[in-house]
Design brief:
The protein is mostly helical. It contains four helices and two strands; from the N terminus they run H-H-H-H-E-E. It has a two-stranded antiparallel ribbon.
């Protein structure tokens, strides 16, 4: 079995939450008031952050602490909302609310 980086297997849940908050803070500071991390168009970093933030904000979990941590950083949530609005469209179907996405032209 592959092991995590040294030390991660020794971390408590509180330690992991603290690391997530530190990561979000660093990303938030880098993004600042810019629309994207490196200019006026999204890059791979924007896509990576979007994927993680979107998942955390939209996945129902028994404990929403991750969501609460991410929501403290409004510019990360705003980045996620902007990418979703500009690049994705939810499929609206009366039979299903499964959250499928289709790329806009």
């Amino acid at each position: 079995m592959k092991r995590l980086e040294p030390g991660w297997d020794q971390q408590t849940l509180e330690d992991v939450y603290a690391e997530i908050e530190t990561c979000c803070r660093a990303l938030s500071e880098r993004l600042d008031n810019s629309p994207y991390f490196f200019g006026s168009k999204p890059t791979e970093l924007d896509a990576l952050v979007f994927g993680h933030v979107f998942s955390i904000l939209t996945t129902p979990l028994p404990d929403n602490r991750l969501k609460v941590i991410v929501q403290q950083f409004g510019n990360l949530s705003k980045l996620c909302e902007m990418i979703e609005r500009d690049y994705f469209e939810r499929l609206n179907s009366s039979d299903s609310d499964n959250g499928n996405f289709v790329k806009l032209p």
